[in-house]
Write a structure and sequence with these properties.
The protein is mainly alpha-helical. The radius of gyration is 15 Å and the shape is elongated. 15% of the residues are buried. 45% of the residues lie in helices and 10% in strands. It has a single domain, classed as Multidrug-efflux Transporter Regulator, Chain: A, Domain 2.
Length: 98
């Protein structure tokens, strides 16, 4: 059985959580740095840099492990999407070819 990085997950045979399974997860799940990095499309070191810069919330410490609430990461992605859509709307870009 392979660890997906999600506390309480029973998913097997995958190294990382896939985008389809993210949608169905409870928001109170704790996820590790590798999973956060995979969801954001960055490396784990970049996750640490984003925390230091205040771009990501600080992790919850579980003994010596760092974990993030799935709800915080999903919320961050929703905010980023809103900002992107707002800037595209203001620039007049409708999603077609430029």
């Amino acid at each position: 059985m392979t660890d997906t990085g999600i506390a309480g997950s029973d998913t097997t045979d995958t190294k990382f959580v896939n985008s389809e399974s993210v949608v169905g997860l409870k928001d109170d799940r704790l996820i590790n740095i590798k999973t956060v990095a995979h969801i954001l499309g960055v490396c784990p070191r970049t996750v640490n840099r984003m925390v230091a810069a205040g771009e990501l919330p600080p992790p919850v410490r579980v003994r010596t492990a760092s974990r993030w609430y799935m709800s915080e990461i999903v919320s961050l992605l929703a905010k980023l999407k809103q900002c992107r859509e707002k800037s595209l709307f203001q620039s007049g870009h409708t999603g077609g070819t430029v």
